[in-house]
Amino acid sequence: MMLEFILHKSRCENFVTLSHDQARLTGKARWLSLHHKRAGQARMSPEDLPFVRSLTVFGKAHKSVLDFSKYELLRVLDLEECEDELGDKHLREICNLLLLRYLSLGGPISVLPKEIAKLKLLETLDITRTKIEILPIQVIELPRLIHLFGRFKLEDASQRISKLKNFLSEKSNLQTLSGFVADKGFAQLMDHMNNLTKVKICCESTMDVSNITHLSKSINGFIQRGTHASDNRSLSLNFNKWSEDLLSFSLEKTCFLSKLKLKGNILSLPPFVTTLAGLTELSLSSLGKFTGDILAAVSIVRSLQYLKLVASHMDKFVIRKGQLNILLRLCIVVQSMEDLEIEEDALPCLESLQLLSKDLDGFGGIRMEFLGRLKEVALDDGVSDEAKQEWEEAAKKHPRRPKVLFVKTM
């Protein structure tokens, strides 16, 4: 109903025009979104739409629509959901759209042409949905690039490493770097990306000691550059095999980091985590178990508003009064839990409690009445009918009558 109202209002104000079936679009359209237009249905070409600034394609489109050589004024191109197979010709044409600010690609594309260097005004590049594994150096040399999304390695830059370091230190505007697979080249370059605020790194188990040392220095430097509470910085690390040396450093001064996500074989909480200022979201995910030492360290992390713990097993976790005082959301995903105990008057601000485990035997220490501001409880849909009934009855007796949701998990 809300979507229909928005569309109606937009049509009345001549902001949106809807076209169905054989209708032909004309006029000075500036934003064009095509939804599953088959070749026989689409009756349009760029000649009809010379003022298009933004083009989004879902599903298939007529080949005339994918003639990018005629979109001279295009600023935004979103092909992430496009089902047509884009070839080298399409990519070359895209690289000639010199006014592009935003480019999102999808489908079977596996190589970006070096001609992408011509997109001097490009600010956002998203290739998450493609099959691109190697990123050409020309991408990180784009002077206006701010956000880069995907999962890829950087092509060999050993012969240009000095030039790249200078560019990144002095001219790069890159703020978001999401999905880089760390290797020797990347580990050396990241330390020179001074404007980064959001970083997501994947690391393969084949990294040698030298690479780990470079990457550790770069991560430390990224965190140390967070000197203001308003920076809103985030760091996500995904490691198949966790190296204790990677995050063993300590912080020399107060550093601000808003979000931290660690995924891998976590044996202990890195020492810098408990000293961070402004950390509002913390997510820890391990294929193994979380020991009591890890859980005790987590409970003293300051300023947390969201805490997510994912593991196969967890030791006893006791949250005492005075710990995690402003936590709003707690999510635990576990196969088995020894015990979770929330003391009376602990977690005074908690509004959402997610316990995603088919075995609730380890959650008997939770008294819902102790959580005065609770609004929502989410449980695994696979728990027994008896457990569902118990939690629903407890919710009915709670002053706020929180919702009890049952979530289907893998």
Provide a compact summary of the structure.
With 410 residues, this protein is of the alpha/beta class.
Q: Would you spell out the secondary-structure blueprint of this structure?
A:
Elements: H1 2-12, E1 31-35, E2 54-58, E3 76-78, H2 88-94, E4 102-106, E5 124-129, E6 134-135, H3 137-140, E7 147-154, H4 161-170, E8 176-182, H5 184-190, E9 198-203, H6 209-224, E10 234-239, E11 259-263, E12 281-285, E13 289-290, H7 292-298, E14 306-314, E15 317-319, E16 329-337, E17 340-342, E18 352-356, E19 376-380, H8 385-397, E20 403-407
Parallel strand pairs: 1-2, 2-3, 3-4, 4-5, 5-7, 6-7, 7-8, 8-9, 9-10, 10-11, 11-12, 12-14, 13-14, 14-16, 15-17, 16-18, 18-19, 19-20
Q: Estimate nothing, just give the exact number of structural domains.
A: 3
How far apart are the first and last residues' alpha carbons, in Å? 32 Å
* Biggest beta-sheet profile: 18 strands, parallel
Number of helices: 8
* Shape assignment: globular
Domain Disease resistance R13L4/SHOC-2-like LRR: 52-403
Pfam families: LRR_14 (PF23598)
Protein name: Disease resistance R13L4/SHOC-2-like LRR domain-containing protein
Organism: Triticum turgidum subsp. durum (Durum wheat)
Features:
410 residues; alpha/beta; Leucine-rich repeat, LRR (right-handed beta-alpha superhelix); 18-stranded parallel beta sheet; two-stranded parallel ribbon; globular; LRR_R13L4/SHOC2-like; LRR_dom_sf; repeat; Disease resistance R13L4/SHOC-2-like LRR domain-containing protein
Would you mind describing this structure in some detail?
The chain folds into 3 domains: 23-132, Ribonuclease Inhibitor (Leucine-rich repeat, LRR (right-handed beta-alpha superhelix)), CATH 3.80.10.10; 144-251; 280-410. The chain is 18% helix and 25% strand. It has helices spanning 2-12, 88-94, 137-140, 161-170, 184-190, 209-224, 292-298, 385-397; strands at residues 31-35, 54-58, 76-78, 102-106, 124-129, 134-135, 147-154, 176-182, 198-203, 234-239, 259-263, 281-285, 289-290, 306-314, 317-319, 329-337, 340-342, 352-356, 376-380, 403-407. The strands form 2 sheets. It has an 18-stranded parallel beta sheet that branches. A two-stranded parallel sheet has the order 15-17. α5 (184-190) runs parallel beside α6 (209-224). Keywords: Repeat.
